[in-house]
Automatic annotation (TrEMBL):
This is Phosphorylase. InterPro entries: Nucleoside_phosphorylase_d, Nucleoside_phosphorylase_sf. GO terms for molecular function: catalytic activity. Residues 15-167 form the Nucleoside phosphorylase domain. Pfam families: PNP_UDP_1. It comes from the Bacteria. It comes from Nostoc sphaeroides CCNUC1. GO terms for biological process: nucleoside metabolic process.
Amino acid sequence: MPNFLPITTILVPQGTEYKAVCRGLSGITGSIPTIVAIPVGMKPLLKYLQQGQFLAPSRVLIMGICGSLSDRYTVGDIVLYEDCVYQGKRLECDRTFTAQLHSAISEKASLVKSMTSDRVISSAAEKRYLGETLAADVVDMEAFTALEFFNAAGVAVAMLRVVSDDCQHNIPDLTPAINSDGSLNPLPLAMAMLRQPLAAIRLIRGSLTALKVLQEVTNRLFSSNQ
């Protein structure tokens, strides 16, 4: 098992994803990275990063959950990003760092192409359309912003996420529930869920599965470096 530490910093979207990663690291006795809870969404994240909250890290691992745009990836699948596209621009993750992570969890993780969206992609039809037209496998709301920021700073970035929703079913449109600071607003979140109860149940189940896998893969990743 190769030792690819030091990973100096892990960035994880705030809330349940951040808590899952913290739980995964809770039993690790050796040296662990700084875990930073980041805002959800492109603009809130950029503002946060520009404020320079942390010292210049040498290697940043971004973790969390994502949505699938392809039949090949379903709920609970672990993915490592090769690159990320947004509005026609494509940025690559650090190849060496990604390869080292992949070798550590290769039996579980798939190398994928990702896209970043400035809103929640809630329709299954739109997911499949985006997957086909952009040749992307998964979608999230932070990756491109983080890559652009850290690439410019000369910081190596890898991204490891777990699929929480597939491209076969709609999920509730949670975009109105995301505040301008990247936090979730409970009331609009509840309203969005109530408007589409079946989709909401599916999203909750998928998220719980993905968060459990996220916790497990975090633990496995850092246990292997003891």
